[in-house]
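2.7 Reproducibility. Because tokenized structures are sensitive to small changes in the input, we list the exact sequence used for UDP-glucuronate decarboxylase, including any N-terminal residues retained from the expression construct. No trimming or masking was applied before prediction.
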Amino acid sequence: MSKILVTGAAGFLGSHLAYQLIQKGHQIIGIDNLSSGRLDNVLPLMETGRFLFIPFDITSHHVLTLDALAGIEEIYHLASPASPKFYQSLPFGTIAVNTIGTSFMLELAKTNNAKIVYTSTSEAYGDPQVHPQQEDYRGNVNTWGPRACYDESKRLGEVYCYEYFHRYQVPVKVARIFNTYSAGLQNDDGRVISNFVTQALRQTEITVYGDGSQTRSFCYVDDTILALQLMMENDSANGEIINIGNPSDYSILEVAKLVQKLTRSSSPITFRPLPEDDPKLRRPVIDKAKKLLDWQPKVSLEEGLNRTIAVYRTQNTDKKGILL
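Resulting structure tokens (single pass, no recycling of outputs):
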């Protein structure tokens, strides 16, 4: 049994990860300031007897003096708003958690001789001019735009990881995560899958931004969580940046039509202007993950959508069986 810290534990990925680690018998400490995470996500975890929740902002240097964190063996640093809806409304907090917060988590790892996985993002590639994207591609990013608070702070977080690995030999691994989904996403989260499924079930317009030709790869949450655990377990991942995502990509319009089909929805698809800096292409090369982790996604988009739709359908239905 290991003593493991999960930052951002009340978020989508954090709560899923904490649950799976608890199932393996580990003792988990979850930290979240609840700026975008939900307390409801961790309440079931607290009932297991293996989860301690600390509502706290890891950008405070006092995080390094919390008694509960003494003897931490592993750190999964997931804290950060991840949806444009949230990080654009919390730009300074987003910058702080990915830079100052990351430096504190690395310092905590250094002090405790702990392993650490830092969750970066495919946004580090910006609007790529190379397709698909592999880890040595430096990206095509914009520091002067509404997405910069997220992607640029994540990139700087990677720099902190580089320095701690090379200067202090902290066993840090960087996961560049591509779009991850499941029913665990809030239906008002603002990301593609949650938007489309919610709109389709409610028989409202399915909103596609731009002409829908922009591509994304979608990885079901169970596959992403497994990859993060494999990164933590494998020393071969120390000091490495590894793409974690599904190497199959779909146009946004294809996804909208697939959701429409699977939900048997009569919702019309409507088009709105593409947001500023929205990437046109996004698909990972996962050769490094295959080689170092023996990992690749197993859940197809259709299977994952069916799982997501089934849960959303229940969540969006009142006691009389009427979709809300």
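The longest strand covers residues 115-121.
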